[in-house]
Specification:
Length: about 500
């Protein structure tokens, strides 16, 4: 192939050689790594994180067989990887620190980011040094924060996709270890509300069992020893912090970084992550020689396939006439609701795609939204219109996507329950670089008037793809319309079509 610069790094004992050449015109395929020292297999090259191409595709979209060596064991971090503790910890620790000195929110946030992934005592000592606190001890701050956290661990949800992953590992008998910086005495309290799944893991290692915490590799080496690992390149680690990535790489394992809080992917790349995913929902075990997930379902799209594939929306296939994409059903379904608020004004003006935004930064909507990874979803929307918000739905958006029979099933123009098909973005929208997390549903119908303030209810049924950046506004718009097509195709399936009758959506019941 032509055009692109290719760099290969070869390891042979202490001999490390860098070979540069020219290859395919594929943006970002400019750094390759092999399996490391001591491997008795053929080199297995894979791309470093890359920017999306013109259609939004990234390195995650290449066929599974193009990447990575086979692994036989997994090692999982806990906080921020399997359970969503990071936001609660930040809230509590920040509140305590603000009682010990005068700091800006930015100073405290930066200090906490620098210690994320450390053991509690190590992190507390580091924060005291960073903020130059003089009239307190690490023990006193840790005692106060621990007491507050122990009373609130019950608020913590599992990370999106965590339960699915754990059930998959248990079902396929894949040996799995937990490697957490949490001390053993804290672990039981932290996990009390999580159904005992931790007992199904083969190995548990905690931060108080090793001399040095992350970013030292001790805890991962201990986990490997207990798993009976003979070659660290047979291990895959899932981590959410740069310090954890550094530790796992130092132990010799492959590492997938799954940032738990919006962050710069550059920090994870610099730490040595072999792949960076938006969430556990995007983990494809086939790329690591493991059995595939069996829960994604095929969705037949409603126009002839005119692309070579598309980014991150599952495995797109063709049957000669119609394209087939895949979606991941959610279990359980997620319910969101609230008044429609003004967004950024770009949906209609910039994209030609009007969205009915929901506020998810506080209250019950925030707690439910935290159960969803950043990404694109589909489902049904119920809309209560009163007074000046009376609507006149004129036609289905993108009528070309559905034929008359299918439109009859999706169109609710003459119904009194006012439910509509919808596709939804939740997250930070990398293309526009949002500073706050947003929920932007697109009701797949045309409305003559705005309906700000109207009550909107959503039943989120399935996951289409992760958030992604795009090289142009045109490619973003093209992808959004493709998402709408996937959503409509999915909602025609019986298992999703019936959900529009939910009494919550028709305002007959509250939740």
């Amino acid at each position: 192939p032509r055009g692109a610069r290719v760099v290969c790094v070869a390891n042979s004992g202490s001999d490390r050689r860098r070979v540069t050449g020219r290859g395919a015109e594929a943006p970002g395929f400019d750094k390759f790594k092999n399996q490391g020292e001591g491997s008795d297999r053929l080199p297995c090259f894979f791309p470093a994180p890359m920017a999306p191409d013109v259609r939004g595709r990234t390195s995650a979209d290449v066929a599974p067989e193009a990447f990575f060596a086979s692994v036989t064991q997994l090692i999982l971090d806990l906080d921020g990887t399997l359970i969503n503790t990071e936001q609660l910890v930040d809230e509590v620790v920040s509140a305590v620190l603000h009682t010990r000195g005068v700091f800006t929110p930015s100073q405290v946030r930066i200090a906490m980011e620098q210690v994320r992934g450390m053991r509690p005592m190590d992190g507390t000592k580091a924060i005291i040094a960073i903020l130059q606190l003089t009239d307190c001890t690490p023990e006193s701050i840790l005692a106060e924060t621990s007491s507050l956290l122990n009373a609130r661990w019950c608020e913590v949800n599992m990370m999106p996709g965590a339960k699915r992953l754990l059930e998959y590992l248990h079902r396929h008998k894949i040996k799995t270890a937990l490697a957490t910086s949490t001390p053993f005495d804290f672990l039981e309290k932290k996990m009390a509300s999580h159904d005992g799944w931790i007992k199904k893991l083969d190995v548990i290692t905690t931060g108080d069992e090793v001399v040095n915490g992350k970013p030292a590799p001790d805890i991962f080496k201990l986990a490997m020893d207990r798993l009976g690992v003979t070659d660290p390149k047979l291990c895959l680690v899932l981590e959410d912090t740069p310090l954890g990535v550094i530790a796992a790489k130092a132990a010799g394992a492959f590492v997938i970084a799954i940032p738990s809080i919006q962050n710069d992917d550059g920090a994870y790349a610099e730490a040595g992550a072999d792949a960076i995913l938006k969430s556990l929902l995007d983990f494809d075990p086939r790329k690591w020689g493991l059995p595939e997930f069996e829960d994604r379902i095929d969705v037949e799209l409603n126009h002839p396939d005119d692309t070579e594939g598309d980014m991150n929306s599952g495995d797109e296939k063709t049957d000669g006439k119609k394209a087939v994409d895949t979606v991941l059903p959610l279990s359980p379904f997620i319910y969101l609701g609230g008044p429609v608020v003004k967004g950024f004004g770009r949906g209609s003006k910039t994209l030609g795609i009007p969205t009915a935004n929901l506020e998810i930064t506080d209250g019950p909507a925030k707690r439910e939204a935290e159960k969803l990874a950043p990404g694109i979803y589909f489902g049904w929307a119920g809309l209560r219109l009163t007074g000046d918000t009376d609507r006149n739905m004129t036609r289905d958006t993108d009528q070309k996507l559905i034929d008359t029979t299918e439109r009859d099933r999706l169109d609710d123009t003459h119904s009194t329950n006012k439910t509509y098909p919808m596709v939804m973005s939740i997250g930070w929208n990398p293309f526009f670089e949002n500073a706050v997390k947003t929920c932007e549903p697109w009701l797949l119908a045309d409305f003559e008037n705005d309906f700000y303030g109207a009550e909107l209810r959503l039943k989120v049924l399935g996951y289409i793809r992760p958030e992604a950046n795009f090289v142009s506004l045109e490619s973003l718009i093209e992808r959004i319309h493709k998402d709408a097509e996937v959503a409509k195709g999915a909602l025609l399936l019986d298992q999703f079509a019936e959900a529009r009758k939910d009494a919550y959506l028709t305002f007959e019941e509250e939740r």
